[in-house]
Amino acid sequence: MTDDQNNEQRIVSSTRDVAAAPDTIFALIADPAEQPRWDGNDNLGTAAPGQRIHAVGDVFVTTLTKGVDRDNHVVEFEEGRRVAWLPAEAGKPTIGQLWRWELEPLEPGRTRVTHTYDWTNLTDEQRLPRARATTEDKLRASVDRLAELAECDT
Questions:
Q1: Cα(20)–Cα(27) distance, rounded to whole angstroms?
Q2: N or C: which end of the chain has fewer CB within 10 A?
Q3: What is the pLDDT of residues 53-71, one digit of tens each?
Q4: pLDDT above 70 for 24
Q5: Backbone angles phi, psi at 38, to 5 degrees
Q6: CATH code for the domain defined by 12-153
């Protein structure tokens, strides 16, 4: 690994204030069936209904646009405030990537939304180019799409 690779930024995030209540936004994040609607990476194809996240230890399955299933292991959860998961190939250990959503209530009907992608533990060389391509702009696209959906529900 070169010095540039050792020093590269492996945690990327995007934050935006959204004109919707935290519960409205969180409902769209914590229901995997809703996730393909706001995915700014255009990587999620589908997720079966009925997988709503409720706690650390939950596992939900998403199908990527290329038809591959991912088991997503929930590692952080606070209802209405924070959720994070580690993806894995179906039936295998997690691959070193963390997706996190944090919601901070502002005044009534407004929420600060932060979306973070942390790939500090990713070691699979084949996955590194895609990880590097997951930029702040891609995360912002997810936040913007999520905001549009949540603000329509308000």
A1: 11
A2: N
A3: 999 999 999 999 888 999 9
A4: yes
A5: -115, 5
A6: 3.30.530.20
**What residue type is 146 in one-letter code?**
L
Joined together, the tokens standing for residue 8 give: 């590269």
Domain borders along the chain are 12-153
Q: Distance of alpha carbon 54 from its chain centroid, rounded?
A: 16
Contact by Cβ (8 Å): 100, 76: yes
Q: Which of 69, 3, 62 lies closest to 37, judged by CA?
A: 62
Tell me the sheet residues that pair with 17: 112
Does this model's pTM top 0.70? My answer is yes
In this structure, which amino acid lies at residue 72?
N
pLDDT tens-digit map of 90-130: 999 999 999 999 999 999 999 999 999 999 999 899 999 99
